[in-house]
């Protein structure tokens, strides 16, 4: 379980760090050829690439999750028993709920 949380934390941090690094790199001319662009083009390109970078991080996280072995994780037995018990209980009908109100009043 600790590995899953660690991967989630790393992906969450990267979703903040990578787009900010892209914007920083564009605004401080760290990438080659940036000085030739107009300010409007620079803003559009840096924003577009920042959004793309977040999607790349999300895709990377999904790929890591898909490679996780499914047999490694087993559901909590208490959760399963509670879920099965809640499914087997009959749902109250509208007539039952109206009778309950008249008794309370």
Identify the notable features of this structure and list them briefly.
Vma21; Vacuolar ATPase assembly integral membrane protein VMA21 homolog; membrane; 4 helices; transmembrane helix; cytoplasmic vesicle; mainly alpha
Order of helices and strands: HHHH
What is the average per-residue confidence, as pLDDT, rounded to a whole number? Answer: 83
| Uncertain residue segments | none
Multimerization status: single chain
Q: How many helices?
A: 4
Major sheet details: none
How far apart the termini lie comes to 50 Å
- How many domains? 1
Report what the structure shows:
The chain is an all-alpha fold. The chain has one domain (2-91). Helices cover 74% and strands 0% of the residues. The protein has four helices and no strands. It is elongated, with a radius of gyration of 26 Å. The two termini are 50 Å apart. The mean pLDDT is 83.
Detail the topology: elements first, then pairings.
Elements: H1 2-27, H2 39-67, H3 77-88, H4 94-104
């Amino acid at each position: 379980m600790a590995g899953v949380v660690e991967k989630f934390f790393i992906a969450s941090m990267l979703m903040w760090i990578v787009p900010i690094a892209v914007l920083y790199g564009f605004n401080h001319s760290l990438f080659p050829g940036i000085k030739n662009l107009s300010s409007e083009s620079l803003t559009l390109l840096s924003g577009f690439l920042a959004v793309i970078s977040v999607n790349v991080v999300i895709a990377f996280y999904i790929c890591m999750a898909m490679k996780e072995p499914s047999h490694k994780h087993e559901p909590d037995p208490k959760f399963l028993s509670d879920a099965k018990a809640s499914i087997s209980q009959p749902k109250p009908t509208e007539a039952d709920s109206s009778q309950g109100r008249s008794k309370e009043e």
